[in-house]
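step=predict obj=Glyoxylate reductase/hydroxypyruvate reductase n=357
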Amino acid sequence: MSYTPFVRLCRGFVGRRFVNPIVARNMASQRKHKVLVTRTVPQAAIEILKTSQSCDLDYWDSEDPIPRDELLKRVAGLDGLYCLLTEKIDSELLDAAGSQLKVVSTMSVGYDHVSIPETTKRGIAVGHTPGVLTDATATLTVALLLATQRRLIEAAGEVKNGGWGTWKPLWMCGPTLSGSTVGIVGFGRIGIAVAQRLAPFGVTRFLYCDVHKKSESQEKLVSPKAEHVDMDTLFKESDFVTAHTALTPETAGMFNKDAFSKMKSNAVFVNTSRGGVVNQDDLYEALKTGQIWGAGLDVTVPEPLPTNHPLLSLNSCVVLPHIGSAEDSTREAMATLAARNLLAGLAGESLPAQAKL
């Protein structure tokens, strides 16, 4: 009697029972992760995702935001989502994506557009891009402060519309930066970098208000040494007030009628953090009535700000289209960090920059 058929039968059984599941598991582990990038981003980030050879990449190749209905269709079955501030990541979107979604990576420092309670409940990692845009945002803050203080936009407009006549002693004058007191609300990386850039202009005092008092070594990162004060003192004593705070339930609308009423009549207010920390109706009234002298905004609610918004009717208010990080190297650094966050989340690893839960 030949044992060959019996051996073949046994081999087939063993293969089906033990080998095939192993192969199946290996194939599953090699399956590419389904990923959506919701906007045109620097190519370096796309190359990182492609080079990993682990992503089945879907890409909304447009400078404009992906429409909400289109986004809800494309997120179905995703393992990873690479998004921007314009995408609202809420329960509706997460339900549409499915339970297999592992990571949401936003190309932004702020992540108030992401529902952290929802992602936490579902075990979804959230990455963001802090640190890499400190210098660019600090530089823009100073540029915006100077543009407001020296009335640069208004002056350039006068050249174009024929308002430039003979030299006038009081024409286009504004508050003086040298010898002034600068108040910084939010003395983190960006706040400190702003103070360091303003110091050479001859600022006499730097006041700051933060959740926690900084160490003496941190306060000495600027010269003159920064002084920790309460909010009321900062408002009352500062000639220039700059905002560098995250948008939270506690900070929403914190710059309001009450805050502006405590500022000097020659004060300049600058916000490059989040539009939601300012009550824009109250700011308009403060500027229109001369309660404060001027304001510079790089962030607003909504974005873009409608062209008929009252703030845009005031020469004393300079509004920029959210360009705080708009330097080539900074945007590339943000994009590549977001890509690395995404890949780490897909691999079940710690994210290089994970949002606080």
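step=describe
The CA atoms of residues 265 and 292 lie 4 Å apart.
step=end
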